[in-house]
Recover the amino acids of this structure.
């Protein structure tokens, strides 16, 4: 009887270990596979539109009322500049780390402008918003990511599809590009630490 | 021989129990990490860098890239109001009112989290294109055969689920996720 009790305790402890192992470690594998799908579908640090939501879409549970675009990023060497042309409808940009943490989201109402630049740099990197590309732009937001790789996802409302072409014309003018980032000085519109 | 049987049972029970409990908690959520409201479930810390391991595991396993609740509150339902799994061979009526939010929509997905193929290419209704009645209520008919009004086509006999997303929800919506009056999912008939 005593032996059976010990076997039950041991089984319960094994169950706890297996449970925690699955909950803590398996998601990292799943997320890595999902991110790999994006990087294999399009070049890193470049802007790509996703075709109208269909059963074959790259995104799981993609919202049929939204048009999507994305940049996968790798900021281990250079920062990434994101220039977004914001359509006159619901729009948002979300930055995800390689573990799918949504470290930053900005929507059209919060932006309050028609064009905005985001500069994505890794934690601790010195950044100069005045150098690298042209002159300082007051509509530049500096975002620091704890992860050197990840995904930037753009969403815009197209309703039943009637706004699809219009939204895509704004996406066509948007882009992601690597840039040198050096010493930081000067104000920015907004800044967050990831 | 007896030791081998004991070892086998030890591994079977331990691994089986651990796997099943992890799968259930990642799929359905635990009381302290997901909120149930009728047939609808929401994971309020989705997308947050401070999310608990179960929320992270849920979204990693589903492959969904969530928005934080400040940007969008997404509820999902895979059963009707009676707790019976949604089945495309049945007909359903989803009915309710609007929400204090910038805009919202209801979409239908197959169990593999992709939209359902249908000739009409209609996968959702939103607060802009829904037809409301004179009392401000909406009714969405889900069925394989065409219906007048707000009709969301079903296609085969597989299971499916609905998502309800509230974009830019107001603070009192975010703070009352369990008490919000959400759409009812009523089974009309089954084939």
């Amino acid at each position: 009887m005593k032996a059976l009790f010990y076997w039950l305790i041991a089984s319960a402890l094994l169950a706890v270990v297996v449970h925690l192992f699955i909950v803590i470690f398996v998601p990292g594998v799943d997320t890595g596979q999902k991110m790999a799908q994006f990087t294999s579908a399009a070049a890193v640090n470049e802007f790509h539109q996703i075709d109208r939501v269909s059963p074959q879409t790259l995104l799981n549970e993609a919202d049929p009322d939204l048009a999507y675009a994305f940049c996968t990023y790798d900021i281990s060497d250079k920062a990434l500049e994101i220039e977004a042309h914001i359509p006159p409808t619901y729009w948002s940009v979300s930055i995800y780390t390689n573990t799918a943490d949504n470290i930053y989201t900005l929507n059209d109402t919060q932006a309050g402008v028609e064009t905005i630049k985001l500069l994505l740099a890794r934690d601790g990197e010195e950044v100069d918003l005045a150098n690298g590309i042209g002159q300082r732009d007051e509509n530049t937001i500096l975002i620091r990511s704890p992860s050197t790789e990840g995904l930037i996802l753009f969403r815009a409302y197209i309703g039943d599809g009637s706004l699809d072409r219009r939204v895509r014309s704004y996406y066509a003018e948007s882009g992601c590009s690597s840039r040198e980032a050096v010493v930081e000085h000067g104000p920015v519109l907004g800044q967050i630490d990831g | 021989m007896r030791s081998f049987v004991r070892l086998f049972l030890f591994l079977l029970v331990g691994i089986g129990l651990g796997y099943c409990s992890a799968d259930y908690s990642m799929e359905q959520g635990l009381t302290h990490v997901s909120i149930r409201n009728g047939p609808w479930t929401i994971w309020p810390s989705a997308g947050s860098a401070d999310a608990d391991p179960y929320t992270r595991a849920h979204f990693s396993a589903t492959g969904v890239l969530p928005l934080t609740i400040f940007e969008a509150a997404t509820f999902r339902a895979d059963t009707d109001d009676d707790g019976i799994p949604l089945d495309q061979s049945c007909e359903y009526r989803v009915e309710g009112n609007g929400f204090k939010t910038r805009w919202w929509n209801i979409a239908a997905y197959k169990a593999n989290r992709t939209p359902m193929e249908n000739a009409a290419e209609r996968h959702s209704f939103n607060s802009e294109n829904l037809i409301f009645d004179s009392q401000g209520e909406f009714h969405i008919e889900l069925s394989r055969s065409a219906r007048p009004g707000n009709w969301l086509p079903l296609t085969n006999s597989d299971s499916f689920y609905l998502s309800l997303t509230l974009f830019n929800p107001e603070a009192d919506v975010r703070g009352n996720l369990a008490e919000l009056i959400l759409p009812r999912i009523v089974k009309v008939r089954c084939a």
